[in-house]
Design brief:
Largest sheet: 8 strands, antiparallel, barrel
Distance between the termini: 27 Å
Helix content: 40-55%
Number of domains: 2
Number of helices: 6
CATH class of the largest domain: Mainly Beta
CATH architecture of the largest domain: Beta Barrel
Strand content: 25-35%
CATH topology of the largest domain: Lipocalin
Order of helices and strands: HHHEHEEEEEEHHE
Radius of gyration: 20 Å
Shape: globular
Length: about 230
């Protein structure tokens, strides 16, 4: 917890510095611009503005504050959850790495959400049900997309979801964390993408390897990336 609070404090300083830079410009602007991907200005090149830096930093700060919530609020998993969209997180202690990866992360979420909708995993419509007998079902409005068994450790927040025969008994190991609106189930990015690739075949939605390859390439740009389900009851 102490490590997270120190990181959040550091991000607050970055946001404040970026806002100050927007008003004053100068050396600080060049320094922050170089850290967060901006180029030099004036002689034919451009510098990242304080507004852009602050906006991106505030976005990452929100994610860091969400991490604080996830570590102190327990999740009661059994029940039916409504799928709310793709969940993603970057597991790193380096705040600057998280900030630099945020652009890739946002693009990836958008593309992956569109891909999952073809399967029937549509935000606000699809459901994920965790039963007390340790079975689970992922369903669209009209059919079951995946089912299997799961184990969940409330202390470590670790979850193991084992899918059924049509998924070749694929196993996905991840974590369950609380959010301000519900919970997220996050897995290793490559494992979750493997599930998505298999699911589109299982439900007979055809193939779209080019889109999935684009998503995989974006995922490769982000070290420590986790993907999964954002849910609410």
């Amino acid at each position: 917890m102490k490590k997270i609070l120190v990181t959040v404090s550091a991000m607050l300083l970055i946001v404040s510095a970026a806002n100050a830079q927007e008003k004053s410009g100068g050396l600080l602007g060049g320094l922050l611009g170089s850290i967060f991907g901006g180029n030099k200005t004036e002689n034919t090149e451009t510098t990242a503005s304080g507004t852009d830096i602050a906006s991106t930093a505030e976005s990452v700060l929100g994610a860091l504050l969400g991490n604080v919530i996830s570590q102190v609020v327990p999740v009661s998993l059994p029940g039916t959850w409504t799928y709310n969209g793709v969940a993603s997180a970057i597991e790193t202690e380096n705040a600057l790495t998280t900030l630099a990866a945020s652009t890739y992360k946002e693009k990836l979420e958008t593309k992956l959400d569109g891909y999952l909708q073809r399967i029937g995993i549509v935000p606000g419509v699809a459901t994920i049900t965790f039963n007390t007998d340790n079975t689970f079902t992922i369903a669209s409005s009209t059919k079951t997309i995946a089912s299997g068994t799961y184990t969940y450790d409330t202390q470590t927040k670790e979850i193991v979801m084992k899918l059924g025969k049509v998924y070749s008994y694929m196993t996905m190991e991840g974590t369950v964390t609380a959010t301000t609106n519900g919970a997220q189930v996050l897995f290793d990015a490559n494992k979750f993408l493997a599930f998505a690739k298999k699911a589109i075949k299982v439900v007979g939605a055809g193939k779209d390897n080019s889109t999935l390859n684009t998503i995989a390439n974006l995922a490769d740009q982000v070290t420590g990336l986790k993907l999964g389900f954002d849910m609410k009851k």
